[in-house]
C-alpha cells in the first residue's frame, strides 16, 4: 500500500505510526458511558462514537457539552442487535421505510437491513442522527458505522455524503486495508466500492490504513492485555483505527449483552497502568478524529 497522503496534512512523515484508540457503542447503556468517562480521564483512549438512537444519548450529550474537548463522533446506527434491549430509528415509524422490524425496532442483524431498508430511508436516518447530535451540542468529530451496516455498497453513498456535506471525516478504510472484514466489508464489497474510495482519496478525504479491534470473545483480562500489547507493538505504518467496546460491570450490562465479560475486560485492560505505560513506550502517535477533521477543513 502506498503511503497515506493524509499523514503529511497531519504534520507527520510517511513512516509514522498513528493510532486512533476508539471506543464504540457510547450511549448504548450506562455501563458503556461510564467506561468511556473513566478511560478518557485515565488517558488510554483518544476518540469515541455515540449511538444517537439509544436511551443514554441525552447523558452523552450532556457530558460533551460540559467537556467540549471530548472527541465524539456519530456511530451511524441501523441495527438493534440484542434480544431484550432494543431501539429504533429517529426519522420514521413507517414500515415502508424498511428500517423497522415487525416489532417496530431496527432489524437485529445487517442482512435483514440489507434486504429491507430503502437507501433513501437510510439517507434520511443517518442525517437525522448527525443532526440530533449537533443540535444537542456535541462537537461531532466524525461519522463511523455500527456493525458496518451503512458501509454496505447499498448504503455507502449516504454514509459518505452525510459526513462530507458537513466537512466531517468518515471512518473509511483505504483499498486493501487490513481489518475491513470486521465491518462486513469482504473482498466483493471492497471491489464494489474501491474505485469510489480511490476517487475520494484523490480528492484529499482522510482514510485509515487498517482497522484493529479488541476481542469480544475473550473474558480473561490477562489474555486481553497480551492481545492489546501485541496489536500496539506491531502497529503498521499509517493511520490505524483501533476499536474497543469497554463497559463497567453492572447488572444492566449483564442482562443486555451475552459478551458482557469481554466488554468489561476491554475496560479493565485499558484502565491498567501497565498498558498505558506500554503505549507510551512504543514509537506510536495516538491521535483523535478532531485532528483529522480540523486538517480536512483546512484544505
- Summed up, the helix count is 12
CATH superfamily placement = Glycoside hydrolase/deacetylase
Task: Provide the residue-averaged pLDDT.
Answer: 95
The appropriate CATH architecture is: Alpha-Beta Barrel
Number of distinct beta strands:
7
Helix content: 40-55%
- Shape type: globular
Q: Sheet bearing the most strands, described?
A: 7 strands, parallel
Order of SSEs, N→C? HEHEHEHHEHHEHEHHHEH
Distance between the termini: 24 Å
How many structural domains? 1
Percent of residues in β-strands: 5-15%
CATH class categorisation: Alpha Beta
CATH fold descriptor: TIM Barrel
**Rg measurement, Å:** 18 Å
Structural class: alpha/beta
Short description:
By secondary structure, the chain is α/β, with parallel strands linked by helices. The protein is built from twelve helices and seven strands. The protein has helices spanning 6-9, 30-42, 57-66, 110-116, 119-135, 156-164, 187-202, 221-233, 251-256, 260-270, 273-281, 289-298, and strands at residues 17-26, 47-50, 72-76, 143-145, 210-213, 238-244, 285-287.
Describe this structure in words.
The chain has 299 residues and is of the alpha/beta class. The chain has one domain (6-298): TIM Barrel (Alpha-Beta Barrel). It is 42% helix and 12% strand. It has helices spanning 6-9, 30-42, 57-66, 110-116, 119-135, 156-164, 187-202, 221-233, 251-256, 260-270, 273-281, 289-298, and strands at 17-26, 47-50, 72-76, 143-145, 210-213, 238-244, 285-287. Strands 1, 2, 3, 4, 5, 6 and 7 form a seven-stranded parallel beta sheet that branches. Helix 2 (30-42) links the parallel strand 1 and strand 2. The protein is globular. It starts with 5 loop residues before the first helix and ends with a helix. The mean pLDDT is 95.
